[in-house]
Design goal:
186 residues, alpha+beta, VC0467-like, ten-stranded mixed β-sheet, 6 helices
Length: 186
């Protein structure tokens, strides 16, 4: 992979033919991509739990219904017990990876701030992450498993999760409803 082909701060959009249950119709925010591989968080697969359950498990108190009822997303198949908060603006949390104008926090202090109502303005909370080894993501792109597009904070934070797959693909000019599920190689 050359330096200018990094997919960091891009959306990885599953093609309709991708049948892997962890990634079917997914949009993954790529947090890191280098010669060593890639790391991302799926942003459109909500789990059947809300933030209130996570906060209770961590003994963090809040009584605000809008905070308690926020969705938690399945960020990927790896380390599903580990939490990540994608957020803007970037703050000075204990553990933050800065990706362009977005931060990825994995420390307790950001959840405590969210519970108090003074966390970052925009957040998406996920359990787990996705990772690819050296060259793996590039091979999957070459095999037409994915589209990629520059990340867009409106898609990331403002749209309902069920609209993110189509909206992310639309950033590339692709209408997923018009794509064939058949793939071929010349």
């Amino acid at each position: 992979m050359s330096e200018n082909l990094s997919l960091t701060n891009q959306f990885l959009i599953a093609m309709p033919s991708l049948a892997d249950p962890d990634f079917s119709q997914s949009v993954t925010y790529i947090c890191e991509h280098s010669q060593e591989g890639a790391l991302g968080i799926v942003i459109n697969h909500p789990l059947d739990i809300q933030l209130g359950e996570v906060l209770q498990h961590m003994n963090i108190d809040t009584q605000t219904p809008t905070i308690l009822n926020r969705p938690i997303f399945l960020g990927g198949p790896l380390q599903r017990e580990r939490g990540f908060v994608i957020h803007t603006p970037i703050g000075s949390w204990d553990s933050v990876l800065k990706v362009s104008n977005v931060g990825i926090a994995s420390s307790r202090d950001i959840l405590e701030a969210i519970a108090r109502g003074n966390g970052p303005k925009h957040t998406l909370i996920a359990l787990g992450y996705a990772a690819w080894g050296p060259g793996q993501l590039e091979a999957e792109l070459a095999d037409n498993h994915w589209l990629n597009a520059p990340a867009n904070t409106s898609v990331l934070f403002d749209l309902p999760s069920e609209q993110r797959w189509h909206a992310a693909a639309a950033l590339t000019g692709v209408d997923l409803n018009r794509l064939s599920s058949d793939i071929g190689h010349a």
